[in-house]
């Protein structure tokens, strides 16, 4: 589980770099379906947190 | 149709509250935190619906209209990181709550440090931070009711809203607010999706709507937005602020105690970004598309209602406005319950805590009603101060809560010093007596708070070692 968590963390960190798109911070970017392309990166970043969080929480035992 | 829709909505909320009342035994544990019984899905919906207030419905579209698509990035990414702190703070709070029967945040921190003073200090910070928000939600209710029902009685509408919200709290307690949150959460999601779909259809599809807006204001399609609003520093500090502050909201924190087990908390944690990713896009799209329509809006908050009223069928407009009411009510009822719970449990030592809680609920509703009738607004100095410092005040309390959960051996004196120093910093920053160096006020206050925590802890250690 820990391996999977770290794997997803690395993927997620890569997304951060790409989604923030620091190199094009000041520029307007390509528009796809009326939405700027960097929004898709932001959305991917958000959705990639689902498996990251899933693996983070699932390596611990439940307590009742 | 407008009256019927609103009446039907309130009837459903009332029915759920009555049903919750029947399932709730007469004990503080049951009334205030639903007997620690929430499973994963209920906890997930109640955390989400409680967190997404009227700002999500009306404010997002308005902010996107002003600042562009950057609003989605900063809000969606910032909010989807919040589950990390939900997990690390919520898990420990749930465990301690179960072991020592804690039901409120001041009770937990005061109890862990065995300090009634710390408990009262935190109670003051939490109550003062939350009360203005209850008033803001009530005002939003007044605006929505006036708009949908077609009368110009915002103040009276606010008064009616807060008493209706209070009635659901008194009836169903925590179980009632959570169950209505599930209904309201689903309702507002459907309403927002329907609004975006019909507006998009009327504007000729997403590409056409986007191109129209882009041709008028290309800067709305850049990440910083017009006037370079979303700077790198703003991104990083705001995202940090939400991550630290969000779990400390009393209405959020009380839900950690209501979880059935850690599994319920885990489920709601990993589901959270999934909902955020979808839910935050429609209001931002509507806000940016509004740029391409050339409609002149009286204020940013009117962007979403005007767009839906103009470009969607009437029943969608009513559905959307009722959805906004659901967003607002699901936050306000939880805030009202959490404040009355804290006042009943942390201020008084009484056997009949439920009755005291209900009395406080009534008096808070009455105070909010009177404030709205008198005409307190965002222009009123004290109200402006309270709203302007809420996030920072909670951020300054973060080190105290963190230490209570993970670093109890630090002792109560550094924690009290840190809390007091942090709150004084918040006031100093608000009145421009202290600089923030461009970072969010709350983060600045939290840094000061952490500094005093470390400094006083070290000082006590040094004094203990060399002088005692």
Task: Give a quick summary of the entry.
The complex is a heterodimer of chains A (64) and B (468). Chain A is mainly alpha-helical and 64 residues long.
Break the fold down into its secondary structure elements and pairings.
The complex is a heterodimer of chains A (64) and B (468).
Chain A: H1 2-20, E1 31-32, E2 35-36, H2 37-58
Antiparallel strand pairs in A: 1-2
Helix pairs in contact in A: 1-2
Chain B: H1 2-23, H2 28-33, H3 40-51, H4 54-67, H5 70-100, H6 105-112, H7 116-149, H8 154-202, H9 206-216, H10 232-245, H11 250-257, H12 262-279, H13 281-289, H14 303-311, H15 314-347, H16 353-374, H17 381-406, H18 412-430, H19 441-466
Helix pairs in contact in B: 1-8, 3-8, 3-11, 3-12, 3-15, 4-13, 4-15, 5-10, 5-12, 6-7, 6-17, 7-8, 7-15, 7-16, 7-17, 7-18, 8-13, 8-14, 8-15, 8-16, 10-17, 11-15, 15-16, 17-18, 17-19, 18-19
By CATH's scheme, which homologous superfamily of the largest domain in chain B applies? Answer: Sodium/glucose cotransporter
Count of DSSP helices of chain A? 2
Question: What does the overall shape of chain A look like?
Answer: elongated
Q: H/E order of the elements of chain B? A: HHHHHHHHHHHHHHHHHHH
Kindly identify the CATH topology of the largest domain in chain B. Answer: Sodium/glucose cotransporter
């Amino acid at each position: 589980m820990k391996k999977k968590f770290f794997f997803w963390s690395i993927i997620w960190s890569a997304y951060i770099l790409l989604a923030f798109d620091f190199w094009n911070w000041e520029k307007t970017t390509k528009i796809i379906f009326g939405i700027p392309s960097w929004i898709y990166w932001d959305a991917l970043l958000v959705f990639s947190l689902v498996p990251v969080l899933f693996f983070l929480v699932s390596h611990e035992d439940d307590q009742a | 149709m407008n009256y019927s829709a609103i009446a039907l909505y309130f009837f459903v909320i009332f029915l759920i509250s009555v049903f919750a009342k029947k399932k709730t035994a007469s004990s503080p544990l049951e009334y205030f935190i639903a007997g620690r019984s929430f499973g994963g899905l209920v906890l997930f919906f109640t955390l989400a619906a409680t967190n997404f207030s009227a700002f999500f419905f009306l404010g997002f579209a308005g902010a996107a209209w002003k600042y562009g698509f950057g609003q989605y990035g900063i809000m969606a990414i910032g909010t989807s990181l919040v589950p990390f702190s939900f997990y690390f703070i919520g898990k420990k709070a749930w465990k301690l709550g179960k072991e020592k029967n804690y039901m409120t945040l001041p009770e937990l921190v005061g109890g862990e440090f065995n300090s009634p003073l710390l408990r009262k200090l935190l109670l003051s910070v939490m109550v003062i931070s939350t009360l203005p928000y209850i008033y803001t939600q009530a005002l939003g209710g007044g605006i929505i009711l006036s708009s949908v029902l077609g009368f110009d009685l915002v103040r009276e509408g606010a008064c009616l809203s807060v008493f209706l919200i209070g009635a659901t709290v008194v009836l169903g307690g925590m179980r009632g607010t959570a169950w209505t949150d599930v209904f309201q959460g689903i309702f507002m999601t459907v309403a927002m999706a329907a609004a975006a779909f019909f507006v998009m259809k009327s504007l000729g599809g997403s590409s056409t709507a986007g191109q129209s807006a882009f041709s008028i204001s290309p800067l709305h399609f850049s990440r910083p937005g017009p006037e370079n609003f979303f700077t790198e520093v703003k991104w990083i500090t705001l995202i940090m602020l939400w991550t630290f502050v969000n779990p400390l909201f009393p209405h959020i924190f009380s839900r950690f105690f209501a979880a059935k087990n850690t599994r319920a908390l885990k489920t709601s944690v990993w589901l959270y970004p999934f909902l955020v990713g979808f839910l935050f896009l429609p209001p931002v799209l509507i806000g940016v598309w509004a740029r391409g329509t050339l409609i002149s809006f009286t204020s940013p908050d009117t962007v979403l209602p005007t767009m839906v009223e103009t470009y969607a069928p009437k029943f969608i407009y009513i559905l959307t406005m009722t959805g906004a009411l659901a967003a607002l009510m699901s936050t306000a009822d939880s805030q009202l319950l959490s404040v009355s719970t804290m006042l009943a449990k942390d201020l008084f030592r009484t056997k009949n805590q439920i009755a005291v809680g209900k009395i406080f609920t009534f008096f808070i509703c009455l105070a909010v009603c009177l404030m709205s009738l008198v005409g307190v607004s965002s222009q009123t100095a004290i109200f402006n101060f309270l709203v302007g410092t809420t996030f920072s005040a909670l951020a300054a309390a973060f080190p105290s809560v963190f230490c209570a959960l993970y670093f109890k051996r630090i002792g109560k004196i550094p924690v009290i010093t840190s809390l007091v120093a942090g709150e004084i910093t918040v006031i100093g920053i608000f009145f421009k007596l202290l600089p923030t160096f461009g970072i969010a006020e709350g983060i600045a206050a939290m840094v000061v708070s952490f500094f005093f925590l470390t400094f006083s802890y070290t000082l006590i250690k040094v004094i203990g070692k060399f002088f005692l």
